[in-house]
Amino acid sequence: MELFMMSDFGPGSPFWLPNGMALRNALTDYWHEMQARFGYQEVQTPLILSRSLWETSGHWDHYKENMYTTTVDEEDFAIKPMNCPGACLIYKSKPRSYRDLPMKLAEAGLDHRYEMKGALHGLFRVREFTQDDAHLFIRPDQITEQVTDASHLITAYYAQFGFPYRVELSTRPEDSMGSDEDWERAEQGLRDALESMGIEYVVNEGDGAFYGPKIDFHLTDCLGRSWQCGTIQLDFQLPHNFQLEYIDSDGTKKQPIMIHRAGFGSFERFIGILTENYEGKFPVWLSPCQVKVLPVSEKSRPYAHEVAEKLAAAGIRVKVDDRDEKIGYKIREARSLDRVPYMLILGEQEVEAGNISVRDRSNETHVAELDEFIAQVVKENAERVG
């Protein structure tokens, strides 16, 4: 389907081709819409940040072997492997009040992590990826409410694509930071959120991160494989490391709790999962090419391009196959290689009548008016169906 390519000049770093970018942009547009719907503010943090930041976050001491580092003007820098320290700097950029919380920052952040070359695998295991990240800064009394909200967002993603999922709750490990009270409140908040939504879950005792408990969402694809994509992690450590504060209602300084949230995991891996799950037959709104226009002969080529221009003007992704090939060959290629939702087969009869012959994935063909067909596809795009 020519979605992406790899090169030895950049192992583990996908080169997105035109078809892949069309798909990726459609998925990204959906992601942007969902962030706005759930009340997130989008941000973007720098790709390269200084060693001192990574020392503050703890990554320099505990994650450096997975980071790409360099020296500029005799100062050490690293390409970010994750986005959370940048979110902390944004939070700390000015004084915060309890009224400002929750502060919900979303970032489609480009990250780089070193993976051994032998472990790299298509879009599923890469060195460069875009994390569908969010970082929430909340008060302790907001845990259940905000975890519930984040869970609704993640489960909405999976419902959109028809993925079943299972949920795991991981609790306090032996080596952890934070008080007993913090952990008890956090773990109970996660339980309350899941139970309020009626979500069944399995408890992994002692398998939480040292900085806080977490919820992991494992989706199941069409082959029955399990993929850990979504996560909601509570974090006491980074707010402590960065000395984050807010002024509470009684005028005292308090430390916020940080929530890390991801739904797709990364755009790259999620697109890989979607591609295999749909076997390339993406829903209309995701399809790189939504309509392929197939003129039967040279005489119908001008009309084919006229039709394509009207489709493109309506925001529909369209291609014209005006090669000097038999129409049967064009149809087979559009169906088996491009896997387009719709083909428009245009011969002299359609030219004379000023209409179109539409063939869908069921191989059913019907005659339609162009304006009606455009309205149908525009609606399918807007409603993200098909």
UniProtKB/TrEMBL annotation:
Pfam families: HGTP_anticodon, tRNA-synt_2b. GO terms for biological process: threonyl-tRNA aminoacylation. Residues 34-283 form the Aminoacyl-transfer RNA synthetases class-II family profile domain. GO terms for molecular function: ATP binding; metal ion binding; threonine-tRNA ligase activity. GO terms for cellular component: cytoplasm. Gene3D superfamilies: Anticodon-binding domain, Bira Bifunctional Protein, Domain 2. The keyword Hydrolase does not apply. Keywords: Aminoacyl-tRNA synthetase, ATP-binding, Cytoplasm, Ligase, Metal-binding, Nucleotide-binding, Protein biosynthesis, Zinc. Its EC number is 6.1.1.3. It is an enzyme of class 6 (ligase). It catalyses: tRNA(Thr) + L-threonine + ATP = L-threonyl-tRNA(Thr) + AMP + diphosphate + H(+). Belongs to the class-II aminoacyl-tRNA synthetase family. This is Threonine--tRNA ligase. It comes from Lancefieldella parvula.
